[in-house]
Amino acid sequence: MSTPTLDNEAVRKAYRRWAPVYDHTFGRVAAVGRRRAVSYINTREGRVLEVGVGTGLSLPAYKPHLKVVGLDISPEMLAKAQTRARRLDHVLGLAQMDAAGLGFADGAFDTVVAMYVMTVVPDPVAVMRELARVCAPGGEVILVNHFSQEHGLRGWVEHKMAPLAETLGWHPVFETERVMVCPELALQEQTPMWPMGLFSMLRFNKRPERPAAQG
């Protein structure tokens, strides 16, 4: 069976519908993973890029010593994030941007985080490569995401939901292997989270660049 595909317009349409109710629906379901990721990021230093910032629910939780940039593909979601960010000095800026083509220099951020994003984007491999590219050597890439399972009741439900991907705006069937595509990213942690391990936090370290060989 072929995997249903998404494109950016399908994602925008889905989140245009979700934007008015997101905070009180999926925003609550995602709260545990969001708190877990931000709590860890608050122990770090430097510049943070949040890819898929959505309505900006995470923005007030970042500690003021960090410098945060957020982006999202949905203008409706981003408008809500901009309202939240107005009085947050640690938020340097928000932008509408496609995660598969980030407009930032290589190594621009010390921490790159994408929460509940990878099952939404049309090309997760391209997005992972961009997350790795804009992360500084020695920095971290952090994902919070739904990862599907093949067996059991949950696996059966996920596969039954798979044809609805375009309507839902996300892929119910999404294997962990689909984000293991960047050799420069070393997996440091994979932690299942509430509810029932439906979501997991993956934390990658970007290997420092090797010095050029002396001729």
Note the main attributes of this structure.
215 residues, alpha/beta, Rossmann fold, 7-stranded mixed β-sheet, 7 strands, globular, transferase, SAM-dependent_MTases_sf, methyltransferase
In short:
With 215 residues, this protein is α/β, with parallel strands linked by helices. It has helices spanning 8-18, 26-29, 31-41, 75-85, 124-134, 152-161, 165-168; strands at residues 47-51, 67-72, 91-96, 109-115, 135-146, 185-193, 199-206.
The CATH superfamily title: Vaccinia Virus protein VP39
Number of strands: 7
Give the class-level CATH name: Alpha Beta
Total domain count: 1
**How would you spell out the order of helices and strands?**
HHHEEHEEHEHHEE
Mean pLDDT: 84
**Shape estimate:** globular
Uncertain segments of ≥5 residues (pLDDT<50)?
153-157, 159-168
The number of distinct helices, counting runs of at least 4 residues, comes to 7
CA-atom Rg in angstroms: 17 Å
Quaternary state of the chains: single chain
Q: How much helical structure, as a percent, in the residues? A: 25-40%
In terms of structural class, how would the helical and strand content be classed? alpha/beta
- Physical arrangement of strands within the biggest beta sheet: 3-2-1-4-5-7-6
Q: What name does CATH use for the topology?
A: Rossmann fold
